[in-house]
Design goal:
Elements lengths: L5 E2 L4 E4 L6 H10 L2 E5 L2 H7 L6 E4 L6 H6 L5 E3 L7 H6 L2 E2 L3 E4 L6 H13 L5 E4 L3 E5 L3 E4 L6 E6 L5 E6 L15 E14 L4 E6 L3 H10 L4
Parallel strand pairs: 1-6, 2-3, 2-7, 3-4, 4-5, 7-8
Antiparallel strand pairs: 8-9, 9-14, 10-13, 11-13, 11-14, 12-13
């Protein structure tokens, strides 16, 4: 049972210790103004001139400089080692949506762990931003108002089937699975509607499609 949860009526920007630009953080905060740091993400936030509203994790990577800058009451230590700091944060945040920065590089294992957490906790409505992309776990039904030619990559993290309208290459009747068929670099022909039979599909769009992804999240009801 999780004892403490960050509950916010405002969207949340969640930062990790990976790579992200200072201007990317500023842009994320304009959309999601509450700032939460996952462990060593606190160091990155402070160096970018931002003081997190909360810091969650096992706290073994927070520097003395970051501890001095952040009020002590904002730290939540979660000692268990069964989950990553990203997942520790994800399951403790209740917000309209979460924008994740610093979880998609440079370490491949950290990135894969983030994708794993996304699809296991899709109701948290978290979108992870990279330098070029936005990735999120698809709800069972999703509508995206995309410009023609927009890249739509579908990467299954579990066996899943679905159907779609508005994609150049149909997905109906295909059996997706991580060790089998994947859907890299499909293309939108305009607005896209997708429906999946089970959770487990990761959607990856160009960063420019973030607004469309957020609008799709707001409209989605089935997770």
């Amino acid at each position: 049972m999780i004892a403490e949860i960050v509950q916010s009526s405002l969207p949340v920007t969640l930062v990790g210790a990976g790579t992200f630009r200072k201007d990317a953080l500023a842009a994320a905060l304009r959309l999601a103004p509450l700032l939460v740091a996952a462990d060593g993400g606190a160091n990155k936030a402070v160096r970018a001139g931002r003081i997190p509203d909360r810091v969650i994790g096992d706290l073994d990577s927070v520097t003395a400089a970051a501890r001095a800058a952040i009020p002590s009451g904002r730290f939540l230590r979660v000692a268990e080692q069964e989950t990553t700091d990203f997942e520790k944060c994800l399951v403790r945040i209740e917000a309209p949506f979460i924008l994740g920065l610093g979880f998609a590089g440079p370490r491949a294992d950290h990135m894969l762990a983030a994708w794993n957490a996304l699809v296991r906790h899709p109701s948290r409505r978290c979108l992870v931003l990279t330098a070029k992309d936005v990735a999120f776990a698809a709800p069972r039904r999703l509508a995206l108002d995309l410009a023609p030619g927009t890249r739509v990559s579908l990467f299954p993290m579990a066996p899943v089937t679905g159907e779609a309208r508005g994609l150049r290459w149909p997905i109906g009747g295909l059996e997706f699975r991580p060790d089998g068929r994947i859907g890299t670099s499909n293309l939108a022909e305009g607005p896209v509607e997708m429906r999946f039979t089970a959770p487990g599909m990761l959607v990856i769009l160009p960063r420019a499609a973030l607004a469309a992804a957020l609008a799709g999240f707001r409209q989605a009801t089935a997770w």
